[in-house]
């Protein structure tokens, strides 16, 4: 019995060693392919890494990884390349507290400090910087609230019977609408109407404004009805077209050099409806989600990966920031970069709300 136990212990130890060795080889293959974009040969692993086993043993490990669906051989005489299953395993093995370098953090903070405190400028800057850090396409959406709320309105006289209605929403959006009246209205009257509306309906949703039973003059009712229509239109608007940067950086990579593939990517970027269905999968503000190839369930993304996360104020207002690139991307650095930009934009948005 004791002899059997010792034998069982040795078998388990050998099994764990085998699993560890396969894990090591899989990680090396992925890192080599990410860096060079060419199939990885067993000779490369033996020559460049001190694995402590013979070339034949390395080939055996690689063959097992092929059988398990982690690796594939494009041609019988070529090296091997990682499959989506390998990238998924690799992503799950990455440390959860990955951070970009201190130098990168310092540069990002410095550039944001030089902006004027405008949400649209922040979004543009974030997309530009993230594309350069990830060497792929970056996408950032403007912050949006689940339900729009009125912040305040202004009425500006343009002519005797014509005014410009400026509707400012809590989600940092300004909407403008021309209003015509049946009678002449001067600026003092318009200012008085705007002040009354701000007092009565400030911080309300369109539904709350509708339900508030207040007697209004016909002129005031005209303005309030227009405000309700503006807010409801904003609520009906789904995800706005994101800011995209770095498309050239992505298309310059080997995967996209064939003209046909490059054309399909360009068409994909022109129509971003696919993005809405993907971003709806984001559930928690703190999550960074990674969709690899066919995991996105989008044919156009079969050989692309998307890394994205939410930024903003939980349950109040927020947007999405992410990276789009080939499945052969530097997941560790890209995940860390997306996470850091989520943190930066969330802090900026929170500060802006406190000031306003």
Describe this structure in words.
The protein is of the alpha+beta class. It is built from 13 helices and 10 strands. The model is unreliable at 3-15 (pLDDT under 50). It starts with a helix and ends with a helix. α6 (119-134) runs antiparallel to α13. It folds into 3 domains: 43-82, no CATH class; 93-144 and 239-355, GAF domain (Beta-Lactamase), CATH 3.30.450; 150-236, Heat-inducible transcription repressor hrca homolog, domain 3 (Enolase-like, domain 1), CATH 3.30.390.60. The strands form 3 sheets. The chain has a 5-stranded antiparallel beta sheet with strand order 7-3-10-9-8. It has a 3-stranded antiparallel beta sheet with strand order 4-5-6, covered by helices on one side.
The first-to-last residue Cα distance is 76 Å
Q: Major sheet, described briefly?
A: 5 strands, antiparallel
The CATH architecture of the largest domain can be given as 2-Layer Sandwich
Order of helices and strands: HHHEEHHHEEEEHHHEHHHEEEH
Instruction: Report the principal-axis shape.
Output: elongated
Percent of residues in beta strands? 15-25%
Percent range for helical residues?
A: 40-55%
Catalogue the unreliable spans: 3-15
Q: How many structurally independent domains? A: 3
CATH superfamily annotation of the largest domain:
GAF domain
On the 0-100 scale, what is the average pLDDT?
86
CATH uppermost class of the largest domain: Alpha Beta
CATH fold-level assignment of the largest domain:
Beta-Lactamase
Based on CA atoms alone, the radius of gyration comes out at 28 Å
Task: Give the spatial strand order of the biggest sheet.
Answer: 7-3-10-9-8
Quantity of strands, as a count: 10
Number of helices: 13
Q: Helices and strands: which structural class?
A: alpha+beta
